[in-house]
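CHAIN AND CONFORMATION:
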Amino acid sequence: MSLLALHDLPAPAKINLFLHVVGRRADGYHLLQSVFVPIDWADRLHVERLPDGRLERIDLGPALPADDLCLRAARALQRASGTPWGARIAIDKQVPWGAGLGGGSSDAATTLIALNRLWGLHWPRARLAALGLQLGADVPFFLGRGPAFVEGIGEQLTPMRVPALALAVVKPPQSLPTPEIFGHPGLKRDTEPVIVMGSFDSAAQAVAVPPNGAGAVMWPVEWGAVDAGFGRNDLQPPAEDRCPAVADAVAWLRQRYGNGRMSGSGSAAFAHMARDGSDAPPMATFPQGELPAGWVGRRCRSLEVLPLAAWLPD
């Protein structure tokens, strides 16, 4: 018997432990290096198969754009596979947009995973990821298995282990358009690349190599990458220039936890609440009145494995 619907599917957010801009391609796209880590702040999707090819979306929370990434993902998969089926996608939106937390890309990935199963396509992970890349550079990450070292424009993923983390993630009311940040004249575009040496399954090392080859700095991938003292987010200074609320969010976190950093290309920021998050409580909102007016935030845990990772064959 074939499945007709899938309910309560998580679409988790992610944070960038660091984000370095290491160059720029001839077509204008920026070359990045980062470590993406999924967290337990998530949207929830309910997906129903329709027999007549129609694609519909229902907003169970805040209204999304008319043609959001979920509908675009469903349309792309429908066209590429030639399936006659359609879908009704209901979204309970919890992850804020314009935050740099990858919420829209995660929704698209969960949609692709769900429809791959409901439509009986049985596409492997790599084939879905190639389609997802056409929708956005972050989509392939959410079609993967878990934390990853990310290169290129976001499409080159190397799985890595990241120790459990307890995190505070906050977002002020303002959002940031990604093109505006990448187009900022003050953006640093020549950060020294990190070179990964060894296996990510063992005691891998990464090396930050200056252009002249001198003074290389080595750090353990498993621990150095999650140290708030390593690296930076190169997008943070341009973001703070365009949106002072980003600096406010980082300062708020540093005052409480001793560290803070902007996450991706949006206005959200995060702090490590503890080096070992294995005993951290499940995701929870901040106590009423603790966050400034208009801000949203959660106390989160990192995820070692994306929740739907096992649904895709390799």
Q: What stands out?
A: Confidence is low (pLDDT under 50) at residues 198-228. The CA atoms of residues 69 and 268 lie 20 Å apart. The longest strand covers residues 30-50. Helices lie at 69-81, 103-118, 125-133, 139-142, 178-182, 221-224, 236-242, 244-257.
